[in-house]
Structure formats: C-alpha cells, structure tokens
UniProtKB/TrEMBL annotation:
The lineage of its organism: Eukaryota, Metazoa, Chordata, Craniata, Vertebrata. Residues 328-482 form the Helicase C-terminal domain. It comes from the Eukaryota. GO terms for molecular function: ATP binding; hydrolase activity; RNA binding; RNA helicase activity. PROSITE patterns: DEAD_ATP_HELICASE, HELICASE_ATP_BIND_1, HELICASE_CTER, Q_MOTIF. The keyword Membrane applies. Keywords: ATP-binding, Helicase, Hydrolase, Membrane, Nucleotide-binding, RNA-binding, Transmembrane, Transmembrane helix. This is RNA helicase. A motif (Q motif) lies at residues 94-122. Its EC number is 3.6.4.13.
C-alpha cells in the first residue's frame, strides 16, 4: 500500500482514479408520502465475488505488547474491570504509542493532555484496527467515541479515494441529533489532519445543506436513522462504499423504536463490512441485533454486564406521595442553589409536564428552561447553550436529553428526576445521563412516587402563558429565540 500517512484526500477527488469502482450514482424511487419509513428501499442481494476487495486489517502488534505476558494482560484487565468474550482478541494497549497509529493520528493525540487510554480504548483500538466485528459495552462518557473514530480514520485512509456519486466509507448511526452532533465535532477535529470530510444528518434541520454535503462527497457520515432513510429513499446518497459501520448507543436506538429503520439501512451495506456496536446495556434485544449484524464478533465489557454505567455517583431515591413531590422539589432546589456548583437537570415523563413545570418554576422566579422533542432544533441548541454556559442553571427535560449532553467544562452538581415509569428506567436514565459529564459528580437526588407509578399531569396551572416567556435569557435580562 502507498504511504497513507501522507495522503491528501482532497487531491483529485472524484477524478482519474484507476482503483476499482465500488459503485456510485443515485438509485431508488422517490419516497412516498405515506407508509412505513424505508419500505421503498429494496433489499440488496450481494455477490461477494463481484464486489471489489477492500482492506480492513491494519493492526501490527507493538513490540512492547509482544513482550507483555498474559499474566500482565490479565492483571490489567482485572484492575480496569475489562472482560472479553470471543476468539483471538488482541492484547490491550496500555500506552498510546502501543496502538501504532499513523503519524496523522498520533499528532492529534499528543496535543491532548491524556496520560493513558481509557479501558474501552485500550481494548477496543487493537480490535477495531484488526478488522474484527466487535461489541463494546461501557458506560457513556468512557471514551467510546474515539474508540471507534480513530480506527475509522485509519480504515478510510487505506481505501480508494471517493469518486463522484460515492457515498460515505464510514457510517455512524446514532439515536439522537444531539449525540450525532457531538460525534461530528470529534470526527471533524480528528479527521482534518488527513483531510477527511464528514457530515452530520439528522431530522429537525434543513435538508438542503445536508444533501449538498453528501453530494460533494464525505468519507464519514454520522446520521440518525430516520433522516438517513429519507435520503436513501430519495436517492440523495448510497451506502455502496460503506465498509465501516458503527451502531452507537444501540440499546437507546432500540428503545426509541428504530430497529426497523436500522435493519433497512444495514440491508443497503455490503455484508463483508466491519461492524462495531456500542451499548450501555446488554439486553436480549441488543444481543439479537448483534447476532444478526455481526460475524464472529468479540465482546468487550467494562464494569458490570447488567447495567454498565458510571458507578461514581451517589444515588438517593426519595419515595413520596404525589402531593409531596412539588414541595420536596422546591426544598431540594433551595438547598442546591445555595451551593457554588448548582446546575440541575430535572427529568419529566411527558412534553406537557415539561412545559407545565417550566412555566410554573419561571413564574416562581427559578432560572429554568425546558427542552423536549417538539422544540425546534434552533430552540433546543439555544437552550442547551444557555445551560452549558450557566446562564440558566436548571434544565427541565424529557428523554430527548437523557443522553448526549456535554455541558462546557462544567457539570450539574446534582440532578433531580421528577417522573419515571419504573425503577429500571429511572436508574438507567440517571446513570446514563450523569455518566456523560466529564467532571466528577458528588451527589444525586431523585424524587419518585409511591409504588413508582406515573402520576397524571396537573391541570390546575394556567395554560395561556406565552412561549416567549419560556425563552428568557437569565444572563442578559431576556430575549426571545430568533
């Protein structure tokens, strides 16, 4: 292979390549106005003998790893709570140089202040670089994004250049637009050294700029399933060149009902691809998905298998009657607001309850803002920025924010949950949300209900409040979202 560390992927994009074509162009009928998403996508029938070959094993064990005994390896795995299931799993790397990344990757890593890889990176990098399918089960905030993106960059730089009409080489499926945007930021930062182009496609934003990115050619596409299905049905992109597939937060995507769309999308990708699945939990639905999509995969688990999430959190469950809930919430907020670090997230079950509680708290003078799926992307981004930068220190949210939040250099001191359907979903949300924050959290307070049932939304609060009041900027004296 040529010297990929020196490749300029912006050079001669789409012209003069003598490499075999992977396919391109636009295909597929226009999407219908009715019916199930993806029903117009035809399942591909692949003949591997006719497909161009591609390379996916780039891993060479570093001499330091070769000299490391299996006893030392097992000691490391035990200390880091790493368990491995599967055949021919490489030894974990302990220092960054042992990954033997190309210079264009190491230069970016060396600019960071990291001392060593996280456990999921230490075991995941050699696996992904070796071209194996894998399942990574780890808490959110464990460094899994880089665990799959850095090998993806190496993978892409060993493939032929994109030609006009080609789709992405690496596809990352994410459950929410917030997570997709975060992954896109990381992909852009680490991909620019080798001039890789990436884009993020998701619902709730104009299609035009996203379509233009795809038509110009991107090596990395981060997408939510619904919007990607729309573009595939409309022939705006294709997945014939895709050889590196990532399912990020697979359990979350299944919880949100994306399984049919995921299966439709995977049907459009060649079966000899490399697939990496990442999940915070390992329920039977995720296990079945892994069995269907992955071949001879290796499973990595960090921590407990039943609910892999951040354990460095004190969880306090206060079971109370519905009538006591609001008073307890106010007393708790008064206690939190008296502290220096006072950012708070309040989770509620429904969008209606989110709006009601936001209005009520703002009338009472609390610096609260609400976010849920019915708000526009512009509005959601604005609210999140107000919360990140401390202009509003109370965020009231539905499941839309249960993952993918990463406030700027700070994190909630305490988080308050207002409603939940079951103790399982409550604890799952608590751990998964707080695990995303990079700074250590000292305590967590949860307000629940007797018998852990969902109480009905209150109807005794005024409903005629103007939406502009919800969008008050507490730092500047207030202005509506443009």
């Amino acid at each position: 292979m040529p010297g990929y560390s020196d490749r300029d992927r912006g050079r001669d994009r789409g012209y003069g390549s003598s490499a075999p074509r992977f396919g391109g162009g636009r295909s597929g009928p226009p999407p219908g106005k009715f019916g199930n998403p993806g029903e117009r996508l035809r399942k591909k029938h692949w003949n591997l003998d006719e497909l161009p070959k591609f390379e996916k094993n780039f891993y060479k064990e570093h001499p330091d790893l070769t000299r490391r005994s299996m006893q030392e390896v097992e000691q490391y795995r035990k200390a880091k709570e790493v368990t491995v299931k599967g055949r021919d799993c490489p030894k974990p790397i302990i220092k960054f140089h042992e990954a033997a990344f190309p210079n264009y990757v190491m230069e970016v890593i060396n600019k960071q202040s990291w001392t060593e890889p996280t456990p999921i990176q230490a075991q995941g990098w050699p696996l992904a670089l070796s071209g194996k399918d894998m399942v990574g089960i780890a808490q959110t905030g464990s460094g899994k994004t880089l665990a799959y993106l850095l090998p993806a960059i190496v993978h892409i730089n060993h493939q032929p250049f994109l030609e006009h009409g080609d789709g992405p080489i690496c596809l990352v499926l994410a459950p929410t637009r917030e997570l997709a945007q975060q992954v896109q930021q990381v992909a852009a930062e680490y991909g620019k050294a080798s001039r890789l182009k990436s884009t993020c496609i998701y619902g709730g934003a104009p299609k035009g700029p996203q379509i233009r990115d795809l038509e110009r050619g991107v090596e990395i596409c981060i997408a939510t399933p619904g919007r990607l299905i729309d573009f595939l049905e409309a022939g705006k992109t294709n997945l014939r060149r895709c050889t590196y597939l990532v399912l990020d937060e697979a359990d979350r995507m299944l919880d949100m009902g994306f399984e049919p769309q995921i299966r439709k999308i995977v049907d459009q990708i060649r079966p000899d691809r490399q697939t990496l699945m990442w999940s915070a939990t390992w329920p039977k639905e995720v296990r079945q998905l892994a069995e269907d999509f992955l071949k001879e995969y290796v499973q990595i688990n960090i921590g407990a298998l039943q609910l892999s999430a951040n354990h460095n959190i004190l969880q306090i469950v206060d079971v109370c009657n519905d009538g006591e809930k609001d008073d307890k919430l106010i007393r708790l907020l008064e206690e939190i607001m008296s502290e220096k670090e006072n950012k708070t997230i309040i989770f509620v079950e429904t969008k209606r309850r989110c709006d009601e509680l936001t209005r009520k708290m703002r009338r009472d003078g609390w610096p609260a803002m609400g976010i849920h799926g019915d708000k526009s992307q512009q509005e959601r981004d604005w609210v999140l920025n107000e919360f990140k930068y401390g202009k509003a220190c109370i965020l009231i949210a539905t499941d839309v924010a249960s993952r993918g939040l990463a406030p700027h250099k700070t994190s909630p001191k305490k988080t308050q949950y207002a409603k939940t359907k079951s103790i399982v979903s409550l604890l799952k949300k608590v751990i998964l949300v707080l695990s995303l924050f990079l700074l250590s959290l000292t305590s967590l307070c949860i307000l629940s209900f007797s018998h852990l049932k969902v109480a009905g939304a209150r109807h005794d609060e005024p409903q005629g409040q103007q939406r502009g009041k919800e969008e008050w900027n507490w730092a500047t004296g207030g202005h509506p979202v443009a």
